[in-house]
Design a protein that fits this description.
- The chain contains 22 helices and 14 strands.
- The chain has about 525 residues and is mainly α.
- It folds into 4 domains: about 200 residues, HUPs (Rossmann fold, 3-Layer(aba) Sandwich); about 80 residues, no CATH class; about 55 residues, no CATH class; about 100 residues, Orthogonal Bundle (Arc Repressor Mutant, subunit A).
- A 3-stranded parallel beta sheet has the order 1-2-3. A 3-stranded antiparallel beta sheet has the order 5-6-7, with no helix packed on it.
- A hairpin with a 4-residue loop joins strand 5 and strand 6.
- Helix 9 crosses helix 10 and helix 18 runs antiparallel to helix 19.
- It is elongated, with a radius of gyration of 29 Å.
Length: about 525
């Protein structure tokens, strides 16, 4: 068995992996079990990707540290009762007849699977498979019905009163009067019943309860899928039954993790090592909510950027609240490109690209041109077709071809889509003031004096010289002028490289057009 190295790579997945390694070593287990949970009443979303990706990175780091085997269980709580009819499904009226029933015992409104739960589980698996995640799928319904949880459920009955004592202080007076961790399935209606449990018979493995509408009494066995647990107790029971070693969760579940951990200890097991990640905020720094629709869907991100860039966004500072809106996409793409370039031919576990690519950064993960540069090129030439950008790219990189540069080829397509939907509608040029006008005229003259094949660094040095010569105490203001006056936006690329890509003669003409604009700023669609 591999020894844990003295020097641990400086990245948060390895810090987490150390905790898992210590736990597994102390337990005497031969492999580690990682888990992610999923509520299949809705479709997979960007948070689903983030949790599975982050857990996978910790798992990979664990393997690198210890050489031990591990598994990742993607657990679907598909035995949960349907609380309300989702807005984004067909046949909504039909679903209203099945409120309260387990998702796997409700007809599929899409008509493609045996149940609504099976349909959403299939969507989850297709979603995870599309990103190449290595995982095992687990269905709560299957685990309950086949008896895999029976021993743990019987143990839950033995500890029933202790578990209730943990949860009661967190509930209101009305809910306290009826709370039990056990939710029996009604033998006639099939509804997951949230009712008072009148008596628990741990030896028989049953609970006694009454139908609140009819008053009829029932004795229900908690095994073989005839009952399920309330979710905090269910989470703890699952950890106990399966021996989960690691599970991360969002900041909004801190109290739930604490309570489930206490229940897990009551059942006789140590709760898994955990990690709390921060939640995402929208552009206005408000918490992202699926009901509000103020976030970005995975499909939306992937319309404008490669999946690796989404991985880069998820990798960065997971314990810090981050704004998740469309403006963050270009930065995430270029951070990924920079890290992928550093990782070419190297094994650096501190590099996010190492984690994103599972330990080996492929040679194809390389682009000689940044995404921001492509966006600005598309903006200046009002590009609608890839070949327009490739014309400039081939002049900058003779012989460049899409088949030889697959990442760059994808970025060209993404850049056109992003420019069309986000850059072009917001383009707004402003006129140059007297100081800026003099500097731009000087820049045009300096560019005319340069050789045709001048390099990006020489152009960048000229830009620095002109900025200083014209009294820009902060060069940031000079480059802000270039972006706002020439490109119609507040930010932009390294301008020397942009001129080298766009062309010296074309940039001189661009300066002429900018200086000829009227004094009032104009917005151009």
């Amino acid at each position: 068995m591999a020894e844990i190295p003295v020097v641990i790579p400086k990245s948060w997945p390895f810090e987490e992996a150390q905790k898992v390694a210590a736990r597994v070593a102390a337990s005497g287990k031969t492999e580690a079990l990682f888990e992610t949970g999923y509520g299949p009443s809705g479709l997979p979303h960007i948070g689903t990707f983030g949790e599975v990706a982050r857990t996978s990175w910790v798992r990979r780091a664990f393997t690198e540290l210890t050489g031990r085997a591990s598994r990742l269980l993607a657990f679907s709580d598909d035995m949960d009762g349907l609380r309300k009819v989702p807005d984004n499904v067909p046949n909504r009226e039909m679903l209203t007849e099945f409120i309260g029933r387990p998702l796997t015992r409700i007809p599929d409104p899409f008509g493609t699977h045996d149940s609504f739960g099976a349909h959403n589980n299939a969507r989850l698996r297709a979603f995870l498979d599309s990103f190449g995640f290595d995982y095992e799928f687990a269905s709560s319904t299957e685990y309950y019905a086949t008896g895999r949880f029976d021993a743990a459920l019987t143990r839950m009955l033995e500890c029933h009163d202790e578990v209730v004592a943990v949860i009661l202080p967190t509930l209101g007076a009305e809910r306290q009067a009826t709370y039990s961790p056990v939710l029996p399935i009604h033998p006639r209606t099939g509804v997951v019943m949230q009712v008072r449990i009148d008596r628990v018979d741990a030896a028989a493995g049953t609970v006694f309860w009454r139908d609140p509408e009819t008053g009829e009494g029932f004795e229900t066995a908690v095994t073989q899928g005839r009952a399920k647990m309330q979710w905090k107790a269910d989470w703890a029971m699952r950890w106990h039954a399966l021996g989960v070693d690691y599970e991360m969760s969002g900041k909004d579940l801190i109290d739930s993790v604490r309570l489930s951990g206490r229940i897990c200890k009551i059942l006789g097991s140590e709760p898994p090592t955990g990690f709390t990640y921060e939640l995402f905020l929208d552009e206005a720094a408000q918490k992202i909510s699926k009901s509000k629709g103020n976030g970005i869907a995975v499909e939306e991100w992937l319309k404008y950027a490669p999946p690796e860039s989404l991985g880069q966004f998820m990798f960065n500072q997971p314990t810090r609240a981050k704004r998740l809106y469309f403006d963050v996409i270009p930065k995430s793409v270029d951070e990924y490109i920079a890290n992928a370039l550093k990782g070419q031919g190297q094994t650096d576990p501190a590099n996010p690209a190492w984690h994103i690519h599972g330990g080996v950064v492929p040679q194809s993960a390389h682009s000689p041109i940044s995404f921001a540069m492509l966006l600005n090129l598309a903006s200046v030439v009002n590009a609608e077709q890839p070949e327009i950008l490739w014309g400039f790219i081939r002049r900058y990189i003779p012989g460049a071809a899409a088949e030889d540069m697959p990442l760059l080829a994808r970025l060209v397509e993404y850049a056109l889509a992003y420019y069309r939907d986000f850059v072009r509608p917001k383009k707004a040029y402003r006129p140059a003031d007297a100081q800026e006008r003099a500097a731009l005229e000087d820049l045009a003259a300096g560019l005319r004096a340069m050789e045709a094949d001048v390099g990006a660094e020489d152009i960048q040095n000229l830009l620095y010289e002109i900025g200083k010569r014209h009294g820009f105490t902060e060069l940031r203001a000079w480059f802000g002028c270039l972006y706002q006056v020439l490109l119609g936006q507040n930010e932009g690329p390294r301008f020397g490289q942009f001129i080298a890509l766009y062309g010296v003669a074309e940039t001189i003409a661009l300066i002429g057009q900018a200086l000829a604009r009227p004094a009032e700023p104009t917005a151009e669609a």
